[in-house]
Design a protein that fits this description.
Number of domains: 1
Distance between the termini: 42 Å
Helix content: 40-55%
Bound molecules: guanosine-5'-triphosphate, magnesium ion
CATH topology: Rossmann fold
Number of helices: 8
Largest sheet: 7 strands, parallel
Structural class: alpha/beta
Oligomer: single chain
Number of strands: 7
CATH class: Alpha Beta
Length: 219
């Protein structure tokens, strides 16, 4: 009975995600869904890309957090359209919330919509938000065991970012074991090593983002 209820929730989410995807198609928007544990650096990665500039790609952002508008305020400083969703304690975003947020965004002025999900490695994974691609972020302070313990995120990610590599000299993190864990689940998924503070991998991150927007244009 419990399983049945869960399946109904997911089915309802998937149905609304189809509507969200149709809106994206109508406006030529490419959407990415960023998923990580709290504090891995999702907002900082978005800020870093905005600082760098995406040469002509118009960005919009949806921030998901249980409480506060703190992340949206960080993004608003870059003068891009941003909407904060508060889940009032909920541990993930659902497509219904994204659908509502779309009404508050200038869709005809956005090429690439970045959704920052609520910090959580488990709950967001089962909920399609209408995105084209998923970004899984892990920072080196979290331990190399994450792909082994939370495999579903790594099964569905289009790119994996290993963030805060500037801290590798100070924390025990086995990069090889992490890579084996990720590629054991999805052999071809790219893993980018990034430091938002030192600049490592930032160019590749920005290029990947631009590529997502280009793909939409070419389709
Ligand atoms: N040393 C170092 N710190 C970083 C890096 N990226 C982010 N941080 C720091 O990590 C902390 C958390 O970063 P956020 O970007 O807020 O993380 P988040 O994933 O958005 O967090 P939630 O929205 O709460 O889930 C901040 O203090 C950042 O300055 C990095 O590459 N290196
Ligand atoms: Mg954040």
């Amino acid at each position: 009975m419990k399983v049945d209820v869960v399946q109904k929730v997911l089915k309802a989410n998937d149905d609304i995600a189809k509507l969200v995807r149709a809106r994206f198609d109508e406006y030529g928007i490419s959407c990415i869904n960023m998923i990580s544990a709290p504090g891995s650096g999702k907002t900082t990665l978005i800020e870093t890309a905005l600082k760098q500039g995406l040469s002509g790609v118009r960005i919009g952002v949806i921030e998901g957090d249980p409480e506060t508008t703190r992340d949206a305020e960080r993004i608003a400083k870059y003068d891009v359209p941003v909407v904060q969703i508060n889940t009032a304690g909920g541990c993930h975003l659902e497509s219904q919330l994204v659908l509502q947020a779309l009404d508050k965004l200038p869709l005809d002025a956005i090429d690439l919509l970045i959704i920052e999900n609520v910090g959580n490695l488990v709950c967001p994974v089962g909920f399609d938000l209408g995105e084209k691609s998923r970004v899984a972020v892990v920072s080196v302070t979290e331990g190399q065991d994450k792909p082994f313990k939370y495999p579903r995120l790594f099964q569905t990610a289009n790119i994996v970012i290993l963030n805060k590599v500037d801290l590798l000299p100070y924390v025990p993190f086995d990069v090889e074991e992490f890579k084996q864990g990720v590629h054991g689940i999805q052999p071809d998924v790219p893993i980018l090593h990034v430091s938002c503070t030192q600049g490592d991998g930032v160019e590749q991150w920005v290029n990947w983002l631009k590529g997502q927007a280009d793909k939409q244009t070419n389709e």
